[in-house]
Design goal:
This protein is an alpha/beta fold. The protein folds into 2 domains: 121 residues, Rossmann fold (3-Layer(aba) Sandwich), CATH 3.40.50.1000; 93 residues, Rossmann fold, CATH 3.40.50.1000. 33% of the residues lie in helices and 22% in strands. The chain has 9 helices and 15 strands. A hairpin with a 2-residue loop joins strand 2 and strand 3. Helix 5 packs across helix 6. The longest helix is centred in the first third of the chain and has 12 residues.
Length: 258
């Protein structure tokens, strides 16, 4: 646990770390409060591409977590910031209608957009949508993927995520997608810029060995893997990523700062 003795700030993944489905990981809200009392800065980072910032904030506060909306950095919000910086004006948005609320400043177009922004639309995926994205990419439109996660944990078990679809478009078009969410370095820079804490004094707590731990370590942070959510021993054992700390759940994080 000494590996966390100099940590001044923590980034928390959400799904699988704080909750699974609508079930809160026991003791998670109390753990966050404990760390705040210790003077540890906290940010909440997620690749979730099916909820707006407002919805995520309402969900977390409804589950008993005390935090501000501007402490949350989601992959869709990171994409909004990227589009602003690049001064793009039009997008083909493939995501839940709720998430499109965060992109209201941009014009929607499925014929000649500046970029295609892809999140997850669950059971709405069909060949027509997938082929339209392919056609736009072949015309030269940049694909921006909110993440490329392989799978995620739900109350019904593991579910396939959009990473396989992103890989498919890259294969078919021979053009790389721009990945906005974890594990991209840009995402971690955005999530921590206002903390004014150097990466070596930061840690990320997550259940994804690749996106959370691998991405955080590549940025220079410590990686704390929890055995909740999508954690699977065999998958972790086969990964080249080695966590700095492994905990049964986020509640054991308090022991690292006692």
């Amino acid at each position: 646990m000494d590996k966390l003795k100099d940590i001044k700030g923590i980034l928390f993944d959400l799904d699988g770390v704080f909750y699974v489905g609508n079930e809160v990981i026991p003791g998670a809200p109390e753990t966050v409060e404990y760390l705040k009392e210790k003077g540890i800065a906290c940010r909440y980072v997620t690749n979730t591409s099916t909820k707006s910032l407002d919805s995520l904030h309402q969900q977390l506060t409804g589950l008993g977590f005390s935090l501000e909306r501007d402490e949350i950095v989601s992959a869709p919000y990171a994409a909004v910031l990227y589009l602003r910086r690049k001064q793009y004006s039009s997008c083909y948005l493939v995501m839940e209608d709720e998430v499109k609320q965060d992109f209201q400043e941009f014009k929607e177009s499925d014929t000649s957009p500046d970029v295609v922004v892809v999140g997850d639309i669950g059971k709405e995926w069909n060949y027509e949508i997938m082929n339209r994205i392919f056609q736009l990419m072949m015309q030269g439109t940049q694909l921006i993927a909110l993440h490329r996660n392989k799978f995620w944990q739900t109350a019904a078990g593991l579910q396939m995520d959009i990473g396989a679809l992103v890989a498919g478009w890259e294969y078919a078009t021979e053009k790389p997608a721009l990945i906005i969410g974890k594990p991209s370095t840009a995402f971690f820079e955005l999530s921590t810029f206002d903390l004014e804490i150097s990466p070596e004094k930061l840690a990320i707590v997550g259940d994804d060995i690749d996106s959370d731990i691998g991405g955080g370590q590549a940025y220079g942070m410590k990686g704390v893997l929890v055995k909740t959510g999508k954690y699977r021993w065999d998958y972790v054992a086969a990964s080249p990523v080695i966590p700095d700390v492994v905990l049964d759940s986020v509640t054991h994080l308090k022991e690292c700062f006692d």
